[in-house]
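Q: Please design a sequence for this.
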């Protein structure tokens, strides 16, 4: 059963999966801070035996996120990486994966440093032209793993086209939907088999929790992933589940403002003489703007740009001179952040690989928050005034 398919997004964000507490009627799901549950006699319990496997606070959150992605099942993990790890554990030695050459740094590191030595082969290719994919498919190929928009250069990958290729060759398609959030894009509706989120980002939304999630429709796929989830044990605690349930209640409002502020900033940067290039999928000049328009509801609050003629030192000086934006890794919180991908989020990618993907030393990435837009623009202006 899909949860609450008749509801609109905002209603689902607030209500899906959240039932009044059966013992007290509490409107908000309590933090079930317990590791185990009492059994009447061996095996007779109320559906809960041990909290790695199941916890009521986490259950409510999983139902909620499943509803937001129009999925049947959700599994929450103690981090986004924990969620990705579980997906790759569906594979075995000799299997192959086709993925993008512009991945989240931690994903690239896990694929190359953890799973390649275990015998899984990854093809890191340019997915912006999906006709590239088929030439890498062989009898060992099992999975296509995509991120869209990509991080940090905001390429848009056509999810529908990828899913058509995946279906034709009986491959799984998994989409890291962290940058878009379920508010902007629902990959399952476009034919993906698995949606992954770093819940740490927009879903949590307040920079106070690290968590991951997988959403899927297929019963057998769910059983396999739930088995890995419980067996390998990267499951989140009840307090974090509670915080994310609370965060999600305003996801739609936050995303509206992220998109509005993101647009204003992308437009401001596009006009600025000290800016070389702006990466934001909502700009008509963005190379994948038409795909973005087709598969996303709006264009989000992640904006990257390069500084004109800027050395590493000059880029560092610029990135360190903000008053409202904070220099930090991560994204998707209510507060605005600036990040230097080459030395921060993407430092684990070799320089040559990194530069091929456009992650040059003069590239900066903004996670545009939901503060007053005038203050954000003023902050950018004063930072530009400091660099010549
Ligand atoms: C942050 C992030 C991850 C990893 O998630 P964690 O919660 O940090 O483990 C994966 N993919 C993308 C796109 C991310 O931004």
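A: Design:
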């Amino acid at each position: 059963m899909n949860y609450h398919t008749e509801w609109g997004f905002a209603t689902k964000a607030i209500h899906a999966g959240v039932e009044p507490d059966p013992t007290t009627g509490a409107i908000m799901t309590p933090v079930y801070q317990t590791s185990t549950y009492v059994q009447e006699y061996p095996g007779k319990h109320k559906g809960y035996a041990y909290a790695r496997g199941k916890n009521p606070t986490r259950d409510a959150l999983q139902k909620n996120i499943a509803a937001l992605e129009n999925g049947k099942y959700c599994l929450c993990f103690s981090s986004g990486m924990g969620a990705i790890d579980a997906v790759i554990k569906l594979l075995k030695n000799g299997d192959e994966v086709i993925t993008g050459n512009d991945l989240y740094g931690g994903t690239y590191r896990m694929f190359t440093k953890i799973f390649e030595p275990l015998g899984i082969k990854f093809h890191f290719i340019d997915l912006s032209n999906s006709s590239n994919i088929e030439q890498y498919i062989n009898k060992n190929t099992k999975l296509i793993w995509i991120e869209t928009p990509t991080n940090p250069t905001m390429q848009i990958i056509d999810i529908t086209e990828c899913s058509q290729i995946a279906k034709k060759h009986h491959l799984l398609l998994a989409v890291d939907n962290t940058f878009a959030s379920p508010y902007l894009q629902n990959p399952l509706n476009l034919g993906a088999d698995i949606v992954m989120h770093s819940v740490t980002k927009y879903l949590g939304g307040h920079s106070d929790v690290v968590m991951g999630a997988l959403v899927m429709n297929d019963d057998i796929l769910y059983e396999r992933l739930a088995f890995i989830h419980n067996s390998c044990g990267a499951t989140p605690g009840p307090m974090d589940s509670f915080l994310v349930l609370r965060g999600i209640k305003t996801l739609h409002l936050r995303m509206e403002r992220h998109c509005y502020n993101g647009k204003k900033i992308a437009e401001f940067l596009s006009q600025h003489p000290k800016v070389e290039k702006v990466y934001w999928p909502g700009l008509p000049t963005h190379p994948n703007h038409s795909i973005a328009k087709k598969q996303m509801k709006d264009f989000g609050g992640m904006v990257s740009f390069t500084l004109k003629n800027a050395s590493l030192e000059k880029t560092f000086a610029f990135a360190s001179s903000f008053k409202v934006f904070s220099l930090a890794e991560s994204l998707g919180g209510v507060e605005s952040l600036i990040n230097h991908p080459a030395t921060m989020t993407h430092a684990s990618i070799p320089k040559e690989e990194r530069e091929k993907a456009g992650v040059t030393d003069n590239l900066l990435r903004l996670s545009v928050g939901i503060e007053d837009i005038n203050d954000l623009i003023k902050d950018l202006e004063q930072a530009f005034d400091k660099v010549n």
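Q: Thanks. Anything notable?
A: Residues 7-248 form a domain with the Aspartate Aminotransferase; domain 2 fold (CATH 3.40.640.10). The chain has two domains: 7-248, 251-385.
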